[in-house]
Amino acid sequence: MLLALSVLLLIFPATLSAPVRDGCTTGKNKLLLISFDGFRWDYDRDVDTPNLDKMAEEGVKAAYVTPPFLTITSPTHFTLLSGRYIENHGVIHNNWFNTSTQEKKQYYMTQFVDEYWDNGSLPIWITAQRQGKKTGSLHFPGTAATYQNETIQVKEVEPRFYDHTDETEWFKDQDLDFVTLYFGDPDSTGHKYGPDSPERREAVKKVDRTVGYIRETAEKHGLSDYLNIIITADHGMSTVFKGEDVKEIILNDIPGFSLKDLKFHMVDYGPFGLLLPKEGMLDKVYEALKGGHPNLHVYKKEDMPARLHYSKHPRILPIVLYADPGYVINGFYVFQTNKGEHGYDNEVMDMKPFFRAVGPDFHRNLFVGPFETVNVYPLMCHLLGIKPEINDGSLDNTRHMLISDGESCDSGDVRESSLQNVFNGLAAAAGFLLLVFVVVTSYNGYKRCKITPKAKDIGDEHEMKADSKQTSF
Ligand SMILES: [Zn+2]
By its UniProt entry, which InterPro entries does this protein fall under (predicted)? Predict the structure, then answer.
């Protein structure tokens, strides 16, 4: 096992314009977005988190945030990056699949399937670059893909077998306006040991140390006045029910249902499933499963509750399944061993991530109510001073966090911002530095390297070995 990256971030500001603490600050400061996978909203309640507490005192803390449904890693991260619900951005699962050839690619290999990510919604990296910003990304889902013939200017995709013991120098000699960082914990630990375990609490302590390290380093190099930091996650984690009293969901045991009636399926991926019945079998499959288990929700895609925003996209298969908290969906038999899972209804409190923000554009010591993570995108566009693409969020849901109340900048400010970008580029060429060192203290190889011998519906065994249980994301 063991994952827990620690990041040392050294950022030398290329341009030393004075920090502005009121009025229109749009685009004057740098932005760092950090995602700690699976960090549930309440994970700081049973662990001492001095660095996260300090960040809340000096910035903004939300009660929690609501991710989009489906509450799994790649789809929810792409919502953070695009401000679109999953049915609108099309990254509908962690895995790529082809229902004609039966081919499936696991989480890691899906990162390199450009057309899976690049299907109409631009992530903020590309939008920012087109408007003169320089962006970078470390390990964030979606980092590897090419979008409308553009890639992130400075990026590192997590290697498949990453030696996380070495110190890696990263982003050297770069002058970046916007950086995204991704950490695979506490998700991995939450899956393996459960969200209520001592191991999960240890993982949260590591997150806290990482946050402290990043902020101290930014402070040491005089960057705090020019750097906004947003820390959040993609989803939470819920304890999986175990034991003899638990009536497991096993589709093959439901009367009237047969896997033979399906052309293709995505089940055995935690509490969620997608089914493509064979020609003429849709109603039979639907009727058999509907009411087939008290904790199983079965919908034809067009009948999915509108609040879930998970029905419109053509990639979503005709029948959608999801389980109540604590349950997972099995095809033939129970082979999933995870003690924690996500992928449940996004209204379930266990699925809600945390949200913190600090920096020159944010109020200090402000506690705010919950909001949906589709709203993080317009907030980030505002902070960077860029024009957002069409999205499902609104700055109105986060502007109360900002010292400027999200006041719009007039076109004169935008022009000034563009000129400053030109200067930023020249400054970088002249040798100003923005350095990001990544120091890895330990890493949980669990989700990448653990072999799952019982996995039965994955065609590519080699890939399975590398990527392990798909539900770990
Ligand atoms: Zn995740």
Answer: Alkaline_phosphatase_core_sf (IPR017850), Phosphodiest/P_Trfase (IPR002591)
Residues around the ion ligand 1 (C-beta < 5 A):
37-38, 73, 187, 234, 473
Task: Say if residues 3 and 164 touch (Cβ distance below 8 Å).
Answer: yes
pTM of the entire structure? 0.84
Residue 409: how many other CB atoms lie within 10 Å: 19
Question: Distance, CA 195 to ligand 1 centroid (Å)?
Answer: 13
Structure tokens at 292: 């087939």
Q: Where are the domains of the chain?
A: 5-239+347-440, 249-337
- State the Cα–Cα distance between residues 95 and 467, nearest whole angstrom: 11
For ligand 1, the distance from its centroid to the CA atom of residue 74, given in whole angstroms, is 7
How close is the Cα of 242 to the center of ligand 1, in Å? 22
- In tens, the pLDDT along 332-367 reads 988 788 999 999 999 999 999 999 999 999 999 999
Active site residue 151: no
Report the greatest alpha carbon distance in the chain: 71
Kindly report the CATH number that applies to the domain delimited by 249-337.
3.30.1360.180
Fold annotation for 5-239+347-440: Alkaline Phosphatase, subunit A (3.40.720)
Contact present, 161 and 448 (Cβ < 8 Å): yes
